Each structure stands twice: as structure tokens, then as C-alpha cells.
Amino acid sequence: MSYIFDIHGTTVWSPALEVGDAYVRCADALGGAFGAPPGFDLISEDMVEIDVDVFQTFVGRLRLVSAEAPGQIVLQDLIDAILAPSLVMLERAGVSLDLLQDARVADRVARLRGMPR
After folding, report:
1. Residue 107 maps to a domain
2. pLDDT of residue 107
3. In what order do the strands lie in the sheet with 10-13?
4. pTM reported for the whole predicted model
């Protein structure tokens, strides 16, 4: 079984249940820590509809916090674990992304572009 992430009715990611659940919990935690909720509407225990505008704000906040903490390796790794798949989901939803500002994140996004839909 998989966990479904939809934006405007289009599935942008469908990882294994455990992966999806962990992603949602971690994204919620980071959203709370940095004052920007991820914009998830839990349709069922294995499906999320994402409010793309709220999600873009959340992703922008993660990028800003990461950029402002270059010496905080643990913080950057925690953020990157959520940021990279989030950027892929936005990309799949047709949102134009500027990944040139951070080669580390751009590399992670490139590796995740093959994640299941």
C-alpha cells in the first residue's frame, strides 16, 4: 500500500505507507518549529491533499532557514530530508523552481525525481 500526496487532484507522490507517514510527521514538526505549516489536508490515514500556496510558503521557509544556518549541519540535514521531496512534488505540480542557489539541494532533488507517483 502507498501513501498518496495530491495537489489539485493530481498525485505528485505515492511512497510506501511508512515513508509517507514519516514525511507528514516530520513536515508537520518542521512547520511548527519554523512557523510555517505545510498545508496538508488529511483526506484519510493514507492520503493528503496539499494546499499548494501554503506548501510553497512552507518550502520557502525551509529554504530560508537552511540558507541562514550554513554551519548547522544537523539542522540542514533535517530540513533537506523534507525539503528535497517537497521540491519534487512542487515541480510535479507545475511550480517553477529556482534550484541554482543551492547545489546541495539541487543534487538531492535530481536524485529524487524518480520517486514514485
Report:
1. yes
2. 87
3. 10-13, 4-7, 47-50, 40-44
4. 0.93
